[in-house]
Structures are given as C-alpha cells and as structure tokens.
Amino acid sequence: MKNEIAKIFGCNLDAIQDIKPLKNGITNNSFTFTIDGDKYILRIPGEGTDRFINRNREYHVYQKISNLNLSDDIVYINPTSGYKITKHWDDARTCDPYNQEDVNACMKKLREFHDMNITVGHTFCPFDLLDLFESFWSKPSRYGDYKQTKSKVMALHEHILSFSPAFSLTHIDPVHDNFLFINNNQLRLIDWEYSSMQDPHLDIAMFIVYAMYDEEWINRVFEFYFQGSQHSLISKIHAYIATGGLLWSNWCEWQLHEGVDYGEWALRLYRFAKEHS
User: Fold this and answer.
1) Class at the top of the CATH hierarchy for domain 93-276
2) pLDDT tens digits along 244-266
3) If we measure between CA atoms, which residue out of 189, 6, 14 comes closest to residue 113?
4) Domain spanning 2-87: CATH superfamily
5) Would 246 disulfide with which of 4, 66, 212, 273, CB 3.0-4.6 Å?
6) Residues facing residue 32 across a β-bridge
7) How many Å apart are CA 149 and CA 173, to the nearest integer?
8) Exposed e or buried b per residue across 31-56, where buried means at least 16 C-beta atoms within 10 angstroms of its C-beta
9) What is the Cα–Cα distance from 128 to 14, expressed in whole angstroms?
C-alpha cells in the first residue's frame, strides 16, 4: 500500500505518515494518511468486488461530475485497480438519518443532482444484480419462503416499467453515510462506484432501505423529496424499496456463505423485500 501511494505522489516512503484504518466498508476498505501535513483517504476495493463493480465505469462517472461540486474531491483514481485517493475533510460529518433537517437537506441535494439530467454510457439493472448475487451462493437461501418472495419482487419490474421511467445518471448507493456535511453545511455525496443510468427514483428507495425506515419516516422522505407533489409515483418507489431490500439481502446471503454474517441487518433487508413487495 505504501509503495502504491509513493508511486502516485512521486514521494519517498518516509514522507507517508500516520496511516490509519478509517472504516471497513461493506465492499471496500479505507485508510487515512498524511503527506507534508495534508491528509488524504485511500480507498482499496474489497476482495471479490471486481465480480460486480466496474471500476472503469466508476472512473468515467467521476470524470463526468468532476466540476459539479457533487462528490468527494478526487486526487487520484485508477480505472483498473479501483484505488482511489481523495482529500480528507477534517470537519466532515455524515447525515443523521433520524434528524429531519439533515434528511431534508439530503433529499434536496439528491433532487438537485437528479434535475441535472447527467448522462453516461452505461446502465444499472437491480434485477440483474439480484440474480448475479444469487448465482454466487454456494447453497440455497436460509429463508424458507425465498422463492415466493423473489417471485413477487421480480414481478414488480413490470409495475415499474408501467411508469415509463426516464433514465439519467443515478447514484444507486445514496445511503445516509455517503452524504457528508462539510464547510458550514455544504453537502457532498460520495462513493459513486455503482452510479449509472437508471430511474433516479431508485435513489430515494435506497436511502430508505439503508436507513431501515418505518412508514412514518418513509412518508417524510417522500415529502422532503417531492415537496408534496408527485404522490402518484409512490407505489413505484415502494417497488424499488422491495427490490433494493432483496438485492442487498442476496448480497448478505452470499457473504454468509463466505463466512460473514450481517445478522439482524441482513434479516431486516429481507423483510423490506417481503413487506414492500
């Protein structure tokens, strides 16, 4: 790791100081380090992520949004290895998913991004990825009614298409931890590795799923994003909630077969799929 950083910055190994783990994410590992007093974050893709994340596509998304003040400040990104280095913001804090002001600000930022109608050359299909994760399993689902639940979720694709959704660049993974308040509440959205052309309303659903919201909070999110309009779209977003729940439940089952148990969080994802389908 140190050799890679030194190569990127063109510096000696001893110039790289204070390497510390930042977090062990679901799909990546991150570390902070300093060079000449400046602090950075290094993101290293987790083992197996190349099976479902295309780092070349991620690279092109970051090129597309680089001047829009939407994302983390990229210092270096490698479209082959997936190594990414960003500037570290000392005053950054993540969104509190149970603070209404925070969530309102995040939905406003999300809507502003969606309204930019940015385009790239690749798409994301949650139903295809759901099947892909299932194909990684080494044994059947631990849920006795999985086949019935999956059948209901897959049937939602037709319902979603009935709305003739318009595609634009969509983040796909706008979880509350990926919204950072910096510099007197300027808001940035980080981690664009899944970002693709898709129906932007999928982003609303994924925010809801990861926050594990109940119906009261789900309705608040709808209100914050739509500002009281477009309630005819809510059933479509509930369909996306069910799809997102099963998508990441299937990922958790794959990880379980690899020896990593996400426990209650994984079970709640599956319940989202059942209840919202």
Assistant:
1) alpha beta
2) 999 999 999 999 999 999 999 99
3) 189
4) Phosphorylase Kinase; domain 1 (3.30.200.20)
5) 273
6) 20, 41
7) 23
8) bebebeeeebbbbbbeeeeeeebbbe
9) 46
